[in-house]
Write a structure and sequence with these properties.
two-stranded antiparallel ribbon, alpha+beta, 9% strand, Alpha-Beta Plaits, 317 residues
Length: 317
């Protein structure tokens, strides 16, 4: 395997990192814009040096957990790292360490979670989960299907990597549009990464509210600088509630994605520096049967409602 060597004689992780990123983004990773984190380099260095990968894997697991990446996606990404070096699976110590780091991050989020997001002024995902529990209790008391009483309105305005200032401006604009469309105190939340959700009643003239919301988002994000970091047009859709509260919370987790490693510069695009790619993977190494989601790398989401787009909105920046 070709590696890049620095002036001090130490192997640099760029070549491995870019092969790792290519394979992960091409098969299991949902949003290319938030794959990179400095912990990636730490683990790439450990693998190149043939040392103990556990400490670096723990750091990467914690970083993934803090930024809303699911444990399955994080583990699949780890597998991509080792397969990009010609090894079929990661060592057990690395898997265990990544799991432990991810779990520690999740525990910290539970104990420090706030009720309101400061950028948008909207409630957090945890708060909406509580309001969802109330909706399911209401449906149970009325002995009706929860989907008959409530729906989820989902807004995705993500458009690639966004700087901290532009992210704040975008979040404030969409948060104001959400409050204008549904009213202050209405059950809604920011899920991060330009994704927002509102819980609405089926008898609330949902179509009219969605149309007003889409128009208001476009108006508030019409500023030239803000507009370039907003999906054009903003994607808004409605989906019914799943059968159970736990499924609804899982759906929120699937939709959620915090902003791509806020404040951390992304590495150069591989196309900008051909030498960073290193050696190409051996032909036929990554065959379809090696991947948990088949040749396309697309996960099927049984919780996605009939009104949702065929592809996950987060995958088309």
């Amino acid at each position: 395997m070709t590696t890049n060597i620095g002036k001090d004689g130490r192997a640099l992780p760029e070549g491995l990192r870019e092969r790792w990123r290519d394979e992960s983004v091409g098969s299991v990773w949902r949003r290319p814009s938030d794959w990179y984190h400095p912990a990636v380099d730490g683990l790439a260095v450990a693998v190149l040096a043939g040392g103990d990968p556990a400490p670096a894997a723990w750091e990467l697991g914690r970083a993934r957990g803090e930024h809303g990446v699911g444990i399955g996606e994080a583990l699949d990404d780890l597998v991509c790292l080792y397969r990009s070096t010609g090894r079929p699976t990661p060592p057990l110590d690395a898997v265990r360490a990544l799991n432990e780091g991810w779990s520690d991050a999740q525990a910290a989020l539970v104990t420090t979670g706030a009720c309101v997001d400061p950028e948008t002024g909207l409630p957090t995902q945890q708060y909406l989960a509580v309001r969802l529990a109330e909706a399911y209790l209401c449906a149970e008391q009325d002995d009706v299907d929860p989907a008959m009483l409530h729906r989820l309105v989902v807004v995705d305005v993500a458009a690639g990597h966004v700087s901290g200032l532009m992210r704040a401006a975008r979040s404030a604009a969409v948060g104001a549009a959400m409050r204008e469309a549904f009213g202050a105190g209405h059950p809604m939340a920011t899920l991060g990464g330009g994704v927002f959700v509102a819980l609405v009643r089926t008898d609330d003239d949902v179509d009219a509210r969605v149309a007003d919301l889409r128009a208001d988002v476009a108006r508030r994000c019409d500023d030239v600088e803000v507009r370039i970091c907003v999906r054009q047009p903003a994607r808004v859709w409605v989906e019914p509630l799943p059968e159970t509260h736990s499924q609804a919370v899982q759906r929120l987790s699937h939709l959620a994605r915090p902003e791509p490693w806020a404040g951390i510069p992304r590495p150069a695009d591989p196309a900008d520096d051909a030498q960073a790619l290193g050696a190409a993977l051996p032909p036929g190494l990554l065959t379809a049967d090696l991947w948990p989601y088949g040749a396309t790398g697309v996960r099927e989401d049984p919780s996605r409602g009939a009104d949702a787009p065929e592809t996950d909105p987060g995958e088309q920046d």
